[in-house]
């Protein structure tokens, strides 16, 4: 009996040590970089160095775009629940919490979007280094397959509240929606047509948010060499001159803008901007997408961008 008790004691002790670890399979404490990296994506060392050298008293906004494993959504929900108290302890405030309903452009690798703001950078660093975050991060590692994690300066814009409907989009069958996309969407559109079809069939009257990740070129690249010598900034200004009033006329507008200073984790280390735009309804976005003036302006947007991800999301913006 004595040897059995010894074996049991060793097993219990090993279990206790594992439970006290912060996610490392060896029991060795993970670095902040290891805590934030996903299972398949390392952290970008240069961005972390820049984060640590940032003015510790400056405010910071942190954007998360997460791909959750289908079989582990429960683990992510537990992680999120644990994070409520931990973030609050370090002054973190979740200002964007949305779930991806469709990807209009870019890789289809996103399910959840979060933007968290901290009054001071040193509070965010203390949060990352805390024991509480180290204990909870195991759940995130279990649940998250890929991620984009960025930081920078966040700003709110006035909240639009108008509604918008287009009766032409009401009650469409899938076949009718597919025909409308074929007839009304520009052949050069970068939007994923199957997502537009789903939105037409769904015809949801509630507000939603488009979250964009934007990586700008230095010089614009137009089809057939149009606008030679144009900068990406000039091309984007041409697009905004049309799109901004088009969105506003249908009850929408930018709600939160994160100007990115660094990409901590992600396949593209060059993201520059993460705007979150409010649309009054599915009808509002689709009505604009089928507008010939807007379609003619889209070429400027994609001439300005080296890469983009456009996410159709539903959730909460404070």
Protein architecture, described:
- The structure is a single chain.
- The chain has 318 residues and is an alpha+beta fold.
- The chain has two domains: 30-153, Alpha-Beta Plaits (2-Layer Sandwich); 167-254 and 267-317, Alpha-Beta Plaits.
- The protein is built from eleven helices and eight strands.
- It has helices at residues 2-20, 32-36, 45-53, 73-89, 121-129, 131-143, 174-184, 193-202, 232-249, 282-289, 292-304, and strands at 60-68, 93-105, 112-118, 144-156, 208-216, 253-265, 273-279, 305-317.
- Strands 1-3-2-8-5-7-6-4 form an eight-stranded antiparallel barrel, surrounded by eight helices.
- It is globular.
- The protein starts with a helix and ends with a strand.
- Mean pLDDT is 89; it is low at 1-26.
